[in-house]
Fold:
Amino acid sequence: MDLELILMQLFSGVALGAILIMVALGLTIIFGMLGIVNFAHGALFMVGAYAGLYIAERTGSFWWALVLAPLLVGVFGMLIERFLIRPLYKRSIDDPLLLTFGLGYVLVEAVRIIFGTDGVPFSTPSALTGVVDLGVGYFPIYRLFVVGLVAVILIALWLGLEKTKFGLIVRAGARDPLIMRVLGVDISRLWLAVFGLGVALTALGGVLAAPMRNVNPEMGALVLAEAFVVTVIGGMGSLLGAVVAGLGIGIAVSMTALFAPEMATIVMFGLMALVLLVRPQGLFGRPVGA
Amino acid sequence: MTMRKDLFRSGVSRRTMLGGMAAGVGLLAAPALVRAQAETIRIGFPVPLTGPFGAEAKDQVKCAELAVQQVNAKGGIAGRKVELLVRDDKLNAGEAATRTLELIEKDKVHAIVGSLSSAVQLAVNEVTRARGVIYVSISQSDTINEVKDFSRYTFHEALNPHMTTAAVAEKTFKKGSKVAYLVADYAYGHEMLRGFKRAAAAIGAETVGEILHPIGASDYSTLMPRIRSMKPDILCICNFGRDQANAIKQATEFGLKQSMRIVVPVILYNQRLALGPDAFEGVVGGANYYWGLEKTVPSAKAFNDAYKATHGGAYPSDYGAYGYTGVASLLLAMAQAGGSDTDKVVAALENLKYDVAKGPQFYRKCDHQSVQSVLVLESKKKADMANDQDLFAIIADVPGSETMLRSCGELGFPT
Structure:
C-alpha cells in the first residue's frame, strides 16, 4: 500500500466529509436553535436539487441556481415554519417531528408528480468539470469547489452566530426564549429566520450534490440518514460537532473503503452506535438536563 | 357517490335493477364449471415500484399491461379476460414472498410474472415452487437456472448474467487487457463478476482488482483512488439501477474515462435518460432490448408502435420489454393450452417458439431459460444523437443459441 494512495484516500475522505457537513448543517441548526427534529430535511434537500435544476434550465447558469434555489426554498421553509410548525410549539416534541415526517412524504410525492419518478440529468457546470493534479493523484475540480464553498459557509455561519448581535440574540433565544420575550425580543420572527436559514442551507446542499449524485425524488432518503448520523455523532445542535463529525466520518468511510470497501457504509452507523453508547449527547452536545 | 347518482340519472329503472340482481343470483347458483369458464385469468405481478429500481419497475408494469390489453382486445384467452394484479415488492425478499403468497392464496392468481432483483426473484420462486404455480421470472439470475432452484413451474424470460457478460466481454475484452471490477455486494453483482471473470479467462484478459460496494450507496468517491491505482484498461461496473447511474456519474467526474473504458453487464435505458449523455458517453453494456432494434426486427417495431401509442410517443425501456415479453409469452402458452390449467400451460411454454418484441425466442427444455439474442450497446455522445431518444448504437446483436448458455449438465441436470 503506497503512501500516495493513502494520502489520496485521506483527501477523498476530507472531501466526502465536507459534503456530509453540508448535508447535516441545516438539520443541526434547526435543532440547536428551535429544538425541532426536522424529518423533512432529506425531502427539502431533494427539493433544493430540483429547484436548482429548474433554475439552471431557465437561466442556463449553474451559478444562478446556486444562489436562487436556496433563497427560494428558504422562503418556502419560512412558510412551513409560519403556517405548519408555529402552531405546534407549545405541544410536545413529537408533534413537529410527525408533522415534518409527513411533510417529507408530501414533498417527495409532489416532485414525483411534477418531474416524474425516473430522475433527471444535471451536468457539472462546464467551468468546474475535469480533474486537477494534486501531486499525489487526480481529483475532480468540482469536489474541490464544494470543499472550498463549505469552508466559506462555515466561517460565515460561525462569524454570524458568534460575532453579530443577531447571532447573540439567536443563541440567547435558543437558551431561554421566555426571558428573551420578557426583554422585548420578538422570538417568533427570530425562529422564522432561523428555520428559513436552516432550510436554505439544506437546499444549497441539494444543489451542490446534484452534479455528483443522481437527481431523483428519493435522493433525500439516504441524505436524511447521513445527516442524522453526523448530527448525532457531533451532538444534536452543535455546529462544531457537525464539522468534526462530518470530517471524521468522511475519513473513516474513506479509510474503510481502502481496506474493506463493502463495509464503508456500515462503518458510519457503527460509529454512531459507539458514540451513542459512550457519550449519548454526542461529541459536542450538551448533556441532557444541563 | 357520484357513480350511483349517475346511474340513477341515466334512467336505470327499478325494474332493470331488480332484473340485474336476479340475473346475478342466477349466475351464483349456476354450476361451478360454467363459472370457471368465464372466470378471468389473473396474473400476479410483484415488482419493486418503490426504491432504487422504481423507474425500471414502473416501465415493466406499463409493458405488462400493454401485453394484457392486447390479448383482451382480441377477445382474451378461450373467451376469458386477462387481469394483471400488480404488487409492490419493495425490493425486499420477505415482502416479495408475502405478496406472492397473498396473490396465490387470496387473489387465486393463475400464474406469477415479475420481480426485478435477483435476490427477490429467488424468494418469489421459493413460494411459487412450493405452491406449484407457474412463475415467469423477468430479472437476471444465474442460480435460478441451476438444479437447486429449478422447478418445472419456473421459467426465466430474462437474459442471465452468464449470457450478458459473455457477449459484452467478447466485444470489449482483448487478450492481455487489464480489467478492474466494481461490484455491488449481492447476488446480481457476484454473478455478473463471476460471468465476466469466466469470459476474461477464456479471452486471456487479466484481472487487476475487484472492489465490492454496498448496494444502494450514494457516494463512490472514496473508491476512485484505488480503482485508478490499479491502472486497468477496462473498468467493469457490475451494479444496477441508480447504483449504476451514481457509479458511472462519479467515475466520469473523477476522469477515469480518460484512461480506461467503462463496461457494464447491462446498460440501462432509464438510467441513461436520468443521467444524460455526458456521464454515459462511451459506456458499453449488454441489453435484451433497445427500441433501435425496430430497424431490423419487425416485432420490435410493432411493440414500439403499440407502446408509443399509449404512452405519449415514449419508447419502452429494456427492463420494460421484459414485462412485455414475460407476460406475452405466458399468454401465448395459455392460448395454446386453451386456458389456465397449470400442467397444460407448462407443456405449452416448453414447446413455445415466440417472437413478440425482440426476435425469435424459446424456453430451453432442461432449465426453462429463454434462448434469445443479446445486444451489445454503446452510449452515444450528445453530438451523435439524432434525437432525445437516440441513446445507443447497437455494436453487436449476438444471435440466440444454446451455446451461449451453460450446458444442462453443468447446471446439475441429468444428461
Summary: The two ends of chain A are 47 Å apart (CA to CA). Chain A has eleven helices and two strands. The longest helix of chain A spans residues 3-34. The beta strands of chain A are 131-133, 138-140.
